[in-house]
Amino acid sequence: MKKKILWRGLTAIVAAAIFLLPLIGAQAQAADKIGWVGPVYKELSESLTKEFKDYYQKTYGKEVEITFIRPGGWPVCVDKVRAWGGKPDADIFLGAGAPAHEVLKQQGLIVPYQPKDWDQVPSDWHGMKVKDQKYYWTCFAPWIVTNLYNQKVLDRLKLPPPKTWQDMVNPIYRGNVVHTLPYASGTMHETVEIILQAMGEKEGWAYLRLLAAQLPRFSTGSTDTTHIVNRGEIPIGVAQPQMNAMVARRDGYPVSDLLPDKTILVPEAVALLKNAPNEKVGKIFLDWLFSMEGQKAVLNGGYFAARMDIKFSEWEKEGVEMATHAKKAVGVDSFWDLDVGFIEYDLDLATKRWDDVNRYYEYEIYRKWNELKNSLILIEEVEGEVEAAKDQKMDVAKAAAKIKEARELFEYDGAYAAARLAASKARALLVEP
Question: Quick one: fold of 143-264+346-355?
């Protein structure tokens, strides 16, 4: 009897071992993990995913499972990391420019790490910071803030491309310009910052009101702006990453990018999140990203590569798909060979007022957009009536002063109701006996 019990016990143990063997083997071969969070385009995330997985399998002999969280543009992604409160569901903040990374750095949500080949990325360029000297963040894909236009549609409308920011608010372009909100897009946020720093806050906000009045609608993001211009729905798109035009032309759209007279470099950057759950794999990814193979994946994902020792002509010979398009887009053999004049950009100021700029635009321009447009239309109508009255040799001094007051109330104070009242009084003065 005891032998039977012993035999049954041994049989049960063997059966359990046989059952568990596949599970133990599967656990031993379980894929490593890494998570990214950021605003990069889908084409880039797909290129990086494919190439990093291949590299990881080849180098470490196992799979790596990659999750990518993209809740929106730069500001939305920053808020996502903030919401995690130092316990992130990702390891890497992938994408966005310097101000976004500086915000995360100041709030203690990213940590220093110096990737291999870090020295191949310049520290600064034309006065713009390209990487953090204490290794908190590093540019992996530089680009310049541009505007985009559809030449075919502009030709049909018999309109020239607007070459300057002042050209953009010419009434001839009304209804033919589109952009998104600074909270929805880091590129638009940087564009607002460019205007404020180049023109000064008073003149800058006045300009941004005039620019908003040009729009038939707001787009949902920078990518949406690109698609709208590509399809020819609206011919001019404001606040576009430089590489968008490169990819659009590759895909056969009749679009071009136009560097405005005031612009900046955006160092699309990457950083290691504090308390990253897969820190070891995160560091492996950062090392790979700045290798030549990682940078080729960046270029094939539709972004410019950041290393100074890259030559597009050499990569063309190697068969790198996007090298030819990149060379045509920038007109030189390396991104860093570009000769561009930038505004004097205060990164500390941009970082400090990151939230304030987004909030002011939303409450004072976006939420009052219909009132803003209607107010400007009335002001322009009365300005025309005042000019016509001058031609008729009428005494219009009081009316001219009142409509000037209306214009100033609109542009500098954002006092739309008061501006409409002043315009109405100016109109009344023209018909006084």
Answer: D-Maltodextrin-Binding Protein; domain 2 (3.40.190)
